[in-house]
Amino acid sequence: MNPLKCAFGVLSGKFLGFVVRHRGIEIDQTKIDVIQQMPEPKTLSELKSLQGHLAYIRRFISNLAGRCQPFSHLMKKDTPFEWDESCRRAFQNIKDYLMKPPVLMAPTSGKPLLLYIAAQEKSLGALLAQNDDQGKERPLYYLSRTMVGAELNYSPIEKTCLALIFAIQKLRHYLLAHSTNLISRADPLKFIMSRPMLSGRLAKWALLLSEFEINFIPQKAIKGQGIANFLADHPIPAEWEVSESLHDEEVFYIEVLPPWRMYFYSAARKNGAGAGILFMSPNDDLMPYSFILSHYCTNNEAEYQAIIHGLGMAVEMGLSQLEIFGDSALVIKQLIGEFEVRKEELVPYQKEAQRLLEKIPNVTLGHVLRASNSQADGLAGIVASLAQFDARPKRIPIIAKMGGADLRKILRGRRSQSGFGLCNRGRRLASTIS
Predict the structure, then answer these.
(1) b/e per residue, 339-364, with b = 16+ CB within 10 A?
(2) Nearest-angstrom CA–CA distance, 335 and 355
(3) Burial class (CB within 10 angstroms; exposed 0-12, middle 13-18, buried 19+) of 19
(4) Residue 411 sits in a domain of what CATH number?
(5) Is position 276 within any domain?
(6) Looking at 49, 82, 104, which one is the last position of a domain?
(7) Enclosing domain of residue 221
(8) Stretch 136-165: mean pLDDT, rounded?
(9) Tell me: the pLDDT tens digits for 165-178?
(10) How does pLDDT run across 261-305, given as a tens digit for each residue?
(11) Domain with 111 in it: what CATH number?
(12) CA-CA-CA-CA dihedral for 246, 249, 251, 256, to nearest 10
């Protein structure tokens, strides 16, 4: 540590070109005097010098991009340098502003921050503030920039969103340490977060916002000198419609349809067994299916085969939400983990059903009485009766795609790995799926 660069027990001091006092951070007066004494730029080089001096103290100047807009376009390549009356007024406006520059406060931990954002036709602005111990708003940081390229074609609400994203990117080190109250004439959080589908740009914005604790407060609910000064520096373009509702707000809401439902039941007879499956769409359309289980099996095995057939169909149909109901409490509770699978012959069935359940993003299982499962029960009973006469009900193509050979391979592999001696049971299940 160099003692010549340290100061202890002083009321104020210069640090990194700024004056730090007990009341806050101020611009070094020498830097203000340089700008105040500058003549009007007559060449591009002089204009660049002015822009450089302003850039160094930009955090103290509200809407610097908007104030410099009349002469900022002169910096573009192949643009003739013409310092007109609008440039003179803008230059004088900046000098007048620096006659009484704001004092910026250092943030206090434990208090929420206030983030004001505004968008004009060609520029964006933001103010980060915080209430002091007396409850008065004190500025912490001013931000602004001009819009370029496709940003100029954004709608007013999209420009407001862009102002928010610009602010959180520049002020990330402040916002991560505090909760933030966002103050604006429209709610950009609602616009970004409530869209039914996010485009690439909105998805990126939503991802950037996800790491901050930001709450929206309507602009009309805030009273104070901070908002008054900020709005004065960021006038709303006359052609922009000021509305409490967002543009195309009706498209921000989604009609959530109820999930598909699947009922399953099996019937095991002496000479054969059958499975009945009933799908019910969100519009209450019924889709009944039935299957012959050609080999003898127990009731629980038949129930497992029925739900495996149904789950295979649901996966092929691409269902993302499904409610499954069956009248076998044992099978349902084993699949949801309440009951342990103690019979070795049911283990391969349970594992295959779990594998299929994992392919459906949102699925629930419930137990219903047989009276509530009458249609699937009836289908299974009819098929079981037909099985004694070697009659086969029609199978839909989607079941043919389930891949009986693949299931046979899975079951045999599990049988060989588990060492449970499930040879007969495994062959029985595999042979019934074709």
Answers:
(1) eebeeebbbbbbebbeebbeebeebe
(2) 11
(3) middle
(4) 3.30.420.10
(5) yes
(6) 104
(7) 107-253
(8) 85
(9) 888 888 888 888 88
(10) 898 877 766 666 777 788 888 887 878 887 776 566 788 888 898
(11) 3.10.20.370
(12) 130
